[in-house]
Amino acid sequence: MIQKSIFILMLTIFSFALMPQSAQAGPILSQELLIDDPDGPVSIGFLSIDIDHIIDGEVMQWQTFNLFGIDIVNSFGFFADYNEFDLNTGFTFLNFDVSDFSNSIAFQGFWDLDLGLGFLDVFTADADFLFADSFFLGPVTAASPVSEPATAFLFLIAAGGLLMRRRFNS
């Protein structure tokens, strides 16, 4: 009986020693880019950032950027300011010149909190103008990142514990 208790105690201590350390990732903040429509606002995309990438109010990189269902990968120019003292305020300034993975569609945009309005131009890879529209930003939404390796490791420990329990109960 004591041997079984010592084994379980050692297994518990060993599992905590091997658990991966947290990467201390901050929450992911997102804002939708919206256009006015007679039936109400319509989402044309979203921009997500990790608060760890805000330095002195400047956003150094995006987490996810999507426009019209296209993931934005290439940046020829990206500048954004974010109110780091009140994260619910969101972006205070946004300026971008970006394209998709294949560089087939390019987007240029500008948004300013003081104006409360932004402008978006869409071009082809050959610099042919497709269309332009004004947009505004929706409210800030936040999500906490989940570490997949840590979650998988916890499931592995739980499964090992169940197997050990079954072995000792036999």
Name its key features.
170 residues, alpha+beta, eight-stranded antiparallel barrel, 2 helices, 11 strands, 23% helix
Describe this structure in words.
An eight-stranded antiparallel β-barrel has the order 1-2-5-6-7-8-9-10. It is elongated and about 75 Å long. The mean pLDDT is 81. By secondary structure, the protein is of the alpha+beta class. The chain is built from two helices and eleven strands.
List the helices and strands and how they pair.
Blueprint: H1 2-18, E1 28-35, E2 42-50, E3 54-55, E4 58-59, E5 64-67, E6 70-82, E7 91-100, E8 105-112, E9 117-124, E10 129-137, E11 141-143, H2 148-169
Antiparallel strand pairs: 1-2, 1-10, 1-11, 2-5, 3-4, 4-6, 5-6, 6-7, 7-8, 8-9, 9-10
Write a brief caption for the model:
With 170 residues, the protein is an alpha+beta fold. Helix content is 23%, strand content 45%.
Number of strands: 11
Strand content: 35-45%
Overall radius of gyration: 24 Å
Number of helices: 2
| First-to-last CA distance | 14 Å
